[in-house]
Structure formats: structure tokens, C-alpha cells
Write a structure and sequence with these properties.
It is elongated and about 75 Å long. The two termini are 16 Å apart. With 167 residues, the protein is α+β, with helices and mostly antiparallel strands. It is 43% helix and 28% strand. The mean pLDDT is 85. It has 2 helices and 6 strands.
């Protein structure tokens, strides 16, 4: 008798948890979609509205990371060193030093403190510069994460509502 009540209580707790998980996932899907669409909108305006400026590298940080394998795991036998630059620039007569660093890749890897660094700035968002060589964006990527989160939320709601799945 006690085991049956305990089992029923645990099942109820699990169903409530799964049921509460769904709205949280839907909220994450909404925030992800909203942010992705806004960022994609900015990226699509860069070519037409963006203004090119040249900043100066004022700081370089180096991060030690494990390389990712094609299987999705990490290569535990070696390290990669990623270089990130903080860039100061002037736009509209005002100096900016954004918190977001720029990943130095390809030919940029040899840049040092004090070197010029090209940027693209949107006039309505001067504190958020983009490095021309690192601009990527895709409308497919905008929708993949929110759709997956939404599908998992729908599955969680379905599982929480179906009594026969829990017996």
C-alpha cells in the first residue's frame, strides 16, 4: 500500500516537473527566436547601411581550448589557442570600447596591440561593431534552435498530459 502511494506521488511530481518544463522551454524558444531575428536583421543591413571605420587593437586575450572533433566530442590530446581582440574606435565623434571581443582568425591572427582593425558600424547601433571578415548569418540558423526548443516543449506537454504514459 505504501509503495503504491509513493509511486503515485513520484509519478505526480514527475508529471508536474515535465509540465512546468514545457513553458520554460517555450520561453527559451521565444527569446532565442527574438534575439536571432533581431541579429539577422542587423546583419542583413550591414552591407547597405553599415559604415566602415578603422579601430585600434588595445588588448588581446588568449584562450586555451580543446579542439572539437568531427564526431562532436573534444580532442583530449591537444590544445588550441584562440586570440580575441578588444578594439577601440571612433564613430560620430565619440570613442567606443565595446565589451565584446573579436575573434582573430586567418590573416588576423598575426595582429598585435596597436595594429589597425577594420570594423563595420551601423549608425543606429554605434556601440555594436562587426568585423567584416567574421560576419556570418543564415535565416536557417535563426529558426533551428527555436523550432527544436518548441518541439521539445510540445513533447513535454504531451507527456505530462497523457496519463497512460505514466502507468
Amino acid at each position: 500500500m505504501f509503495q503504491a502511494r509513493l509511486r503515485a506521488a513520484l509519478i505526480l511530481v514527475a508529471r508536474v516537473f515535465v509540465g512546468l518544463l514545457a513553458p520554460a522551454l517555450l520561453g527559451l524558444a521565444w527569446l532565442s527566436a527574438k534575439d536571432s531575428v533581431v541579429e539577422q536583421g542587423r546583419l542583413s543591413r550591414l552591407e547597405q547601411d553599415g559604415q566602415r571605420v578603422v579601430g585600434t587593437i588595445v588588448r588581446i586575450d588568449i584562450e586555451k581550448r580543446r579542439p572539437t572533433l568531427t564526431s562532436g566530442g573534444e580532442d583530449r590530446t591537444r590544445w588550441e589557442y584562440w586570440r580575441f581582440a578588444r578594439v577601440r574606435y571612433t564613430f560620430g565623434g565619440r570613442d567606443y570600447l565595446p565589451d565584446a571581443p573579436h575573434h582573430l582568425t586567418g590573416p588576423q591572427e598575426s595582429l598585435q596591440i596597436g595594429d589597425p582593425f577594420p570594423l563595420i558600424v551601423l549608425p543606429d547601433l554605434p556601440g555594436r561593431p562587426y568585423a567584416p571578415d567574421t560576419i556570418v548569418g543564415s535565416w536557417i540558423a535563426v529558426f533551428v534552435q527555436p523550432v527544436l526548443l518548441g518541439l521539445v516543449a510540445a513533447l513535454a506537454l504531451f507527456c505530462a498530459a497523457r496519463r497512460d504514459l505514466w502507468s
